[in-house]
Amino acid sequence: MMIHPSYNELINAVNKDVDPDDEPIVTSRYSIVIGTARRARQLVDGAEPLVETDSKKPLSIAVQEMWDGKVKILGESGEETD
C-alpha cells in the first residue's frame, strides 16, 4: 500500500524554502517519522489540528500539516533549523 505523500516528497516539502547553499533541514526518513509521530502525539493529547481534513487519524493529520508547512521540524537545541 502506498501512502501519499511519500517520505521523499515530505523531505522535499520540508526543505523547499532552504537556500541551495544551506544544509537541508531534514536529510533522512527517520527525521520525518519522528517529527510526524511527535505531532500526532500532540494531536492525541488534545492539540488542535492546523489543517482542515476529512481524516480523524492523528498521524494522517500530522502528515498533512507537515506537507502544508504548518509544522516545523526543530533542531536538537529546540530552535528552528535555518
Account of the 3D structure:
- The chain has 82 residues and is mainly α.
- The chain has a domain at 7-18 and 25-67.
- The chain has three helices and no strands.
- Helix 2 packs across helix 3.
Secondary structure elements and pairings:
Blueprint: H1 7-14, H2 29-44, H3 58-67
Helix pairs in contact: 2-3
Structural class: mainly alpha
Q: Give the overall pLDDT as a whole number.
A: 84
Radius of gyration: 13 Å
Shape type: elongated
Helix content: 40-55%
β-strand percent reads under 5%
* Number of alpha- plus pi-helical segments: 3
The tally of beta strands, per DSSP, is: 0
Largest sheet: none
SSE pattern, N- to C-terminal: HHH
Distance between the termini: 34 Å
What are the low-pLDDT stretches, counting only 5+ consecutive residues below 50? none
Task: Write out key terms for the chains shown.
41% helix; 82 residues; 3 helices; mainly alpha; elongated; single chain
Short characterization:
The protein has helices at 7-14, 29-44, 58-67. It is mostly helical and 82 residues long. The longest helix is centred in the middle third of the chain and has 16 residues, at 29-44.
